[in-house]
Amino acid sequence: MSTTNATRVLLAEDDQIMRTYLSKALEKAGYSVTAVDCGTAAMPYLESERFDLLLSDIVMPEMDGIELAQHCNELSPDTKVMFITGFAAVTLKASREQPNAKVLSKPFHLRDLVLEVERVLEEPAQASL
Q1: pLDDT in tens, 13-71
Q2: Can you say how many angstroms the Cα of residue 26 is from the centroid of all Cα atoms in its chain?
Q3: Do 56 and 33 touch, CB atoms closer than 8 A?
Q4: Cα distance between residue 38 and residue 78, in whole Å
């Protein structure tokens, strides 16, 4: 377990250049980032570690971001979820299936990403019934 108090982000993005780009921007903003290339690679982290935010591309091979978010909700209900995508139709599907998740459409400026991550993390947790 990490001894740092940095906010922990699990980033699932299949595009290697984008994954590196996003990781560096989030780390520069003070977040602790664990980056993986697909949803199936994220699962062991969700099962064994605690994250404040799952930041996931929606369209990925093996397991898409929506399915990953559903697993995240089961394994770690306190983890907030935010999606990134370049596909408008996929944004609608994500909004239906994960109504509490923020969806950020590509292309976006890194400054906007960091601001949206901050907003999502500041929102109060959904009250469970």
Answers
A1: 999 999 999 999 999 999 999 999 999 999 999 999 999 999 999 999 999 999 999 99
A2: 12
A3: no
A4: 21
Tokens 């906010």 appear where?
A: 7
Domain 8-119 falls under CATH 3.40.50.2300? yes
* pLDDT, mean of residues 105-118: 92
Which helix H or strand E contains 66, and what residues bound it? helix 65-75
CA distance 43 to 4: 22
Q: Copy the structure tokens of residue 87.
A: 């596909």
In angstroms, the CA 110 to CA 64 distance is: 23
Is the sign of the CA dihedral 121, 116, 31, 33 positive or negative? positive
CA distance 75 to 43: 9
Structure tokens at 27: 């780390």
Instruction: Report d(CA 51, CA 35) in Å as an integer.
Output: 12
